[in-house]
Amino acid sequence: MSPEQRLAFHQAQSRQLMGLLEEWIQQQIDEHKVEPNSGLGEAISYMQAHWLKLTLFLREPGAPLDNDICERALKKAILHRNYADARIMQSRHSECGRPLLRALAFAEESRFGYSA
Asked: Residue 38 CB: number of other CB atoms within 10 A?
């Protein structure tokens, strides 16, 4: 499917459901059915605060439905960091592991076009 076809599909299949979800969320808040400090209340607050971003797939052709790419990158970076930390801990001189940690972090960041 092209991005435009996918957008049309999401608009046809998901727009009404997302509208109903938004109404339900607002109803929970307006009618005080949910305690703001509860887990559900915090989740509702999060969704309200990020609603435009969460519904971007209904407005923008090619918008991803998930953030798997970011999660994979973070997982790999954390794996490298943990490996480097373990190497530093095994070393008598912690300075030996720091260049490895920096190199692995730089390599992972450069895959996505940014660097610290």
From this structure: 10
